[in-house]
Amino acid sequence: MAESPDFPVFAVVGHPNQGKSSVVSTLVQDDHIAVSPVSGTTREVHQYRLMLGDEILYELVDTPGFQRARQMLDWCAGHSETAAGRPAVLAEFVARHRQEPRFADDCALLEPILRGAGIVYVVDCRQPFSTAFEAELTLLSWTGQPRLALLNPMGDHPHEADWQSALGQYFSLVRTFNPLLAPFEQHLALLRSMAEIHPPWRQPLMHSVDALQRQRQGRHQQAADRLVDYLQEVLRFRLQLPVVGSRAQIRSTGVARYNRELQHRENQFQQQLASLYGHHRLDWEGEWPGPREGDLTDSHEWRAWGLSRPRLASLSGAAGAMSGLAVDAATGGTSLLLGALLGGALGGAAGGFAGRDALSFKLISKVPGYEQWQLGPVANIEFATALAGRALRSWYQVRVRNHARRDSLLLAPQDLSHWLDGLPRKQQVQLLFWLRKLLKRPLQEEERQQFQTLLLALGEQMEDGGESKT
User: Fold this and answer.
1) Is residue 206 in some structural domain?
2) CA–CA dist 58, 60 (Å, integer)
3) Which end of the chain is more exposed for a tag (fewer CB within 10 A), N or C?
4) Which run of H or E residues covers position 106?
C-alpha cells in the first residue's frame, strides 16, 4: 500500500448517479465540475484541491461509478488466501485489468485508494439496498483504507433505514449530506467527521475547518463593504439630460436611461458578489430579472422589494429620531429606546419622502443653449428600501448557494413578499436610519463601518431565516 500524501486525500466513490460529483463540487467550492442527473457523466478520475492562497487544504478525487463490482469481487475472492493479503489482491486485479474496457471504471476508482486516499462512499438512499451494493462495500472494506459513508437524501428516501443498517457494518461513520442544499455549517461538520476516521489527518482537517470559517467571514466582510458602495452609488446616482422636447418627453426618455443604468449597476454588483464567494457560472438573467423600464414609475412593482407602507409608517419616526442619538446606536450596540423613538418628532413615513416620485427631477441649468434637466438622485424612502431589499436578497442568494447547484438563481415567492417586514423591528429601524442618511449625503468612514456592522447582522439574520419579529 502506498504511503498517504502529506495533505488529506479522499476518493469520492459509489454507484453511478449517486451525487458523487456534487459532493466534490460543494466541498472544493468549484462550480466548473460537471454535474448531471445522467448516469455516467464522470468517465475519468479527476483530482480537485481546495486551496487558500498557496496552501492545499485537502484533495477530493472524483471517480467513475462502480460497474462490475460483483465480478471483481468474485475474482479477488478466488485469489485471496488471508484478510491481510486482500489489499495486495486488489492491487493485482487493477494491474492486470486496468486496460480492459469492461473493468476500466472500477480500476480507475480503486487506484487512488490503493495509493493511500481515504474513502467517501456516496449513496442515493432512494434506491433499495441490493447485492450489487454489497459487493461494492465489501471491495472497499478490503482496501483497509479509512472510510466514511454519505447518505445523499435526494427527494424521498424510503430506504434510508436499510441503508443505515447496511452501511453501519462496513463504515465507522455514516452521515447524511445533501450537497445541493446543505448549509455551510454542515460542510464544516462533514469535514470534522472526515477528520475522525484517520488520526494522521485530524489536525490538517481541523485546520481546514478553521481556515474555511475565516475565509467565509472574510467573504462576508468584503460583501458588506461592497454593498455599502453599491447603495451609495445607486441612491446618489444622477443623470443629466439635455433639453430636447417637452418636460414629459425628457423625463420619459430619462427614466428609460436611468433604469438601464440601474440594471447595469445591479448586474455588476451581483457578479462581484458571485466572484467573492467563488461562483463563476451563476445565471442571474434566467430567474432574477432586473427592474423593468416601468418599475420606476409603477411603484407597485418595486414596493414588493422593500418594507410595506404600514411597516414604514410605524418605523420612520423611530429612524428619524435616531439622528439625535449617539451614532453607534445604529450598529446594534444599544436597546435604541424604541418606546421613546416611536414618538419622534419626525413622524411617520411622510418624513419628507412619502408620496414623492421615486426620483427627483429638476431643471439644473436655465442658461439659454445650455439648459439641462437632472434625473435623480433617489428621493423616496420606499424606493430606497426596495433597492436595498433587492441587494440584500442578491447577497443572500449567493451566500447560501452551494457550488454543486447548476440551476438559475430563483426569484422565489418569498423574495417578493416584503421579506424585510420579517426582520426584527430594531434592525428595520437601523436600516431606515442609514438609508435616510444615504439619501442626504455620502457616509464618512466611521459611518461606513457602522453601517457594515448592521449589514453583517442582517446577513446572518437572512441566513437564519429572517422570520422573527419583535
Assistant:
1) no
2) 7
3) C
4) helix 104-114
Side by side, the strands of the sheet bearing 239-242 are 239-242, 372-378, 359-365
Average per-residue pLDDT for the chain: 83
Q: What is the pLDDT of residues 385-431, one digit of tens each?
A: 989 988 998 999 999 999 999 888 776 655 656 678 888 888 889 99
Q: How far apart are CA 416 and CA 131, in angstroms?
A: 49
338 plus 193 within the same structural domain: no
Q: Which three cell numbers stand for residue 453?
A: 456592522
Euclidean distance between CA atoms 390 and 466, whole angstroms: 15
Q: Where do runs of H (alpha helix) occur along 236-366?
A: 247-276, 284-287, 299-303, 309-321, 338-341
Task: Extract the C-alpha cell encoding 197.
Answer: 476516521
- Together in a domain, 400 and 251: yes
Looking at per-residue pLDDT, the higher value among 9 and 463 belongs to: 9
Sheet holding 118-124, edge to edge: 46-52, 55-62, 9-13, 118-124, 147-152, 173-176
388 and 282: one domain? yes
Say if residue 151 is in the same domain as residue 237. no
Q: What is the pLDDT of residues 180-211, one digit of tens each?
A: 999 999 999 999 999 999 999 999 999 999 99
Supply angle C-alpha 38, 137, 124, rounded to 5.
35
Shared-domain flag, residues 187 and 234: no
Bridge partners of residue 11, in order along the sequence: 61, 119
C-beta separation of 330 from 433 below 8 A:
yes
pTM: predicted TM-score of the whole model, two decimal places = 0.87
Print the domain residue range for 268. 221-463
* Cα separation, 384 vs 396, whole angstroms: 18
* CA dist., res. 320 & res. 433, Å (int): 7
Q: Residue 320: count other Cβ atoms within 10 Å of its Cβ.
A: 21
CA-based angle 102:65:185, to the nearest 5? 170
Q: Is residue 181 part of a domain?
A: yes
